[in-house]
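Quick one, probably user error.
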C-alpha cells in the first residue's frame, strides 16, 4: 500500500489499513486464483485487456510480486483463458472468447440475486462406468459439481431444476467424447409412496454443514470492517483492495454452493445474509475502487474504458 504506517491517517482509513494487513498476513493469497478474481471482477467489465505492467502494479498491494503475477498470467494463457500480444518490450493480455465465457458463467453465480423458484423437478445425469473412462467420470463429476449437481449414487448425479441457470449443462456435455455417453433425465419424486425421496437425500448429496460454516466465517470476517466504510472517507486504493478481498473470498464460498431451493436447506441457512453483506459492501466500495482502477491501468488505446453496462447490474443494481 502507498502508506507503510497507519499513523496520522484518519480513523476509518487507519483501521481499514490494519484490517487489510491482518487479512493478508493470516492466509497468503494464491496468486493464480487472485488473478482470476481480479480479471473477472475488475478487468473484464472494462474490455478485458490490460498491459502486464499495470496488472503487476495493481496486484502489488495484495502481496503478489512481479514473478508471481507473470507466472500466473502465463498459466492462464496456457489454459486458454488469456491471449498475449507483444508491443516492443510491453505485453498486452486480453480475455479469449473461451475465457470470457468461463468468467461470465462463474460470475453470474456470484452477482445475481438468489432465486427461490423451484417446481419440484430434478435434472439427473447418468454416467455409466462402462461408457466413460475413470478420468472422464472424474472430470464430469467435477464440472457438474460446479453446477450444483450432487452424487446420489456412483455414476448418478442430480440437482434441482431451476429457472435461470442458463445452458451450462449443455456446454459441459458438448465436450468431446461425452455427449453420446451420458443420459440426462428430468424427474420428480413420486408422491404417495412410502419411499426415500431425492429431497430427503439433500444432506447426503451436498456437504451443507461445511458450506454453512464457510458462509458464517465469511460474514464474520467482513462485517468487522464494513462499518468503517460507512462512517468515513476511504481512499480509492483501500476500496479496491477490500473489494477484491471481498469478492475473492465470496467467490471461493459461493462457487461451492449448489444453490439449492429453500425447501432443501436446513433452517437459518446463512447464504442469504452473506450475499446481502457482499452486496452492501460492494455498493459502498465500487465507485472509489473504479477510480483506483482508472488511475492504475491502461489499455493499448490509452485510458481504461468505462465499465460496461452489465457491471452496474451486479447485485441487483449498483
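Nope, works fine. Designed sequence:
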Amino acid at each position: 500500500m502507498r502508506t507503510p504506517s497507519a499513523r496520522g491517517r484518519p480513523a476509518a482509513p487507519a483501521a481499514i489499513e490494519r484490517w487489510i494487513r491482518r487479512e493478508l498476513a493470516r492466509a497468503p493469497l494464491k496468486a493464480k486464483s487472485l488473478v482470476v478474481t481480479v480479471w473477472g471482477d475488475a478487468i473484464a467489465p472494462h474490455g478485458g485487456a490490460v498491459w502486464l505492467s499495470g496488472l503487476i502494479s495493481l496486484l502489488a498491494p495484495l502481496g503478489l510480486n512481479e514473478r508471481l503475477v507473470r507466472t500466473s498470467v502465463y498459466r492462464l494463457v496456457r489454459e486458454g483463458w488469456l491471449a498475449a500480444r507483444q508491443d516492443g518490450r510491453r505485453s498486452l493480455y486480453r480475455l479469449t472468447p473461451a475465457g470470457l465465457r468461463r468468467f461470465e458463467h462463474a460470475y453470474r453465480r456470484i452477482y445475481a440475486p438468489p432465486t427461490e423458484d423451484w417446481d419440484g423437478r430434478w435434472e439427473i445425469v447418468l454416467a455409466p462406468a462402462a461408457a466413460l473412462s475413470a478420468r472422464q467420470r472424474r472430470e464430469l463429476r467435477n464440472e457438474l459439481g460446479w453446477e450444483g449437481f450432487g452424487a446420489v449414487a456412483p455414476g448418478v448425479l442430480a440437482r434441482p431444476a431451476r429457472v435461470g441457470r442458463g445452458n451450462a449443462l449443455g456446454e459441459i456435455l458438448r465436450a468431446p467424447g461425452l455427449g453420446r455417453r451420458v443420459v440426462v433425465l428430468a424427474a420428480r419424486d413420486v408422491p404417495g409412496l412410502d419411499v426415500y425421496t431425492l429431497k430427503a437425500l439433500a444432506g447426503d448429496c451436498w456437504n451443507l454443514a461445511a458450506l454453512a460454516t464457510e458462509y458464517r466465517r465469511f460474514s464474520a470476517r467482513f462485517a468487522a470492517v464494513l462499518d468503517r466504510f460507512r462512517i468515513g472517507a476511504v481512499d480509492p486504493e483501500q476500496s479496491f483492495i477490500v473489494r477484491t478481498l471481498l469478492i475473492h473470498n465470496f467467490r471461493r464460498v459461493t462457487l461451492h454452493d449448489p444453490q439449492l431451493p429453500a425447501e432443501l436447506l436446513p433452517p437459518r441457512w446463512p447464504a442469504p445474509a452473506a450475499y446481502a453483506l457482499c452486496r452492501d459492501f460492494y455498493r459502498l466500495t465500487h465507485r472509489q475502487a473504479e477510480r483506483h482502477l482508472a488511475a492504475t491501468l491502461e489499455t493499448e488505446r490509452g485510458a481504461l474504458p468505462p465499465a460496461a453496462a452489465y457491471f452496474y447490474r451486479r447485485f441487483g443494481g449498483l
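The domain at 121-188 is CATH 3.30.70 (Alpha-Beta Plaits).
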